[in-house]
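Possible race condition, two jobs.
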Amino acid sequence: MAQTREQFEARLRQIGAERYHDLHPFHDRLHGGSCTPDQVRAWVINRYYYQHSIPMKDAAFMSRVESPDLRRAWRSRIEDHDGTAENEGGIRRWLRLAEAVGLEPDYVASCEGVLPATRFAVDAYVRFVREKTLLEAVAASLTELFAPKIHANRIQGLLKNYAFADDSSLSYFRNRLKEAPKDVAFGLSWVLDHADTQEKQDAAAKALVFKTDVLWAQLDALSAAYVEPARIPPGAWQPHEGLARQRKAS
């Protein structure tokens, strides 16, 4: 028997409370100031691969949507990341963060140093959205329900603990505090409207669990590669690579 709208929303929120990646130990290190400069750089490089893939994920979703109303509502997500004439977009803001932590933005944008596990996890998410039902694809995006808290904690922790942190380098997170609420409100309402049977509710909940696994797996890979004892896999970023020109000259 299907849960009520209120019961099902509570079920989705409980998934975040138990499984969202704000609980991962790497975020404790990052926000608490325990990461070395190279660990911060590794996080920036690998998280960029996720950021740069989000518009492709959303474009894959929109290519399957027949409803103009749904496409219109979803289109702003791509613009928020890719930018418009009036908005530089989240990807450019992330590359500004990359430069602030001492990386060459072109190197980060090339995705050459991304960990294999990061690539596999993010690509799996894009493929999930391309192949699963629209309900499952939208439900997977609902990790945004839990993002404002981690963005606020990240801004506070980075400003407190790292010299590179300022309004410019952290503009990605500040903008997501403004952009994410509208996406969350629409996505949650859409899922609650369309998950009207137990089977659909179970599928939507499973999709959200999958997405939390995608985010968690990225941090597991980062920790395994760059937190002592570091085990950097072949082809992944090495601390001497991709440094900004001013660092090479110093």
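Job #2 (started ~2 s after job #1):
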Amino acid sequence: MSEYLPDVYVAFRERFGAVVQRQDALAAAVDAAGPLDERTLRLVKLGVAIGAQAEGAVRSNVRKALQAGVSVAEVEQVVLQGLTTRGFPATIAAWQWTNEVVGEGV
């Protein structure tokens, strides 16, 4: 699977390298701070992104979940969970973003 990085993300990382290094270190520390495995972390982060209706984060976390061995069916179940918590429009948006990522062949 190839790693897709939006141009704006790459440009931000290049412009603010020292800040991004610290952000990456914080993210690694947060991920390591508990007993959740990589697959579970990816599903949780996807759920948070859906709840925030953050398109880029949804797309990124779908990619990362699939790369961590999460199945498309598991990703779809996480998206569906947003229906009763976040609402129909947010779920449909997350469904669209997810399907676009899956359609890319990740």
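The chain has two domains: 1-34, 36-106.
Logs attached separately.
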